[in-house]
Predict the structure.
Amino acid sequence: MKIPSHLYAIVDPFAGHDPVELARTLLDGGARVIQLRLKNVTSREFLAAALGIAPLCREAGAMFIVNDRCDIATLCDADGVHLGQNDIPIEAGRRLMGSKIIGISTSNVELAKAAEAAGADYIGFGPVYAGGLKNIAQGRGLEMLSAVRAAVKIPIVAIGGITEATVPDVLRAGADSAAIITDIVKAPDIAAKVRSILAIAP
């Protein structure tokens, strides 16, 4: 598969935005990959948000990925799911998702190679930098990102402390796309921020 944009936009309501409206704004700015990431909500609220966002993505021609939840991804007919190392294993996810996209979070070369061998369609790699939404003390760095790029053939979505200013460095180090939450969601004009990032890396 190919990630359709160098920007992998994430809908996370940590700054108080309504998930569906945030997704609409991201899409209006030109985002063509949207992941719905809801950590502290009920399953019913998660499903409602997913059902609201899925048709917006279809209308915009954007890829829609649901974080963690294969059941919700299936119910809203998302394009795929993104699974962390503590979520269900990819083999179980594949039984639920069929041929749809499955991304796997990784943090080193060994996990990246294991994800590829297990049939992941893409990997998330990070945290690249310190800081970010999780306030990471130390990032994995661009050198490890380059090592992961050399070790796997599937697409890599870099995540963790990435900002508009560091997107070019992340792409040069081997990422196919950059996942950004804080730098976009906290921008005064979210759609303009998306357009600015896409101007660097369409």
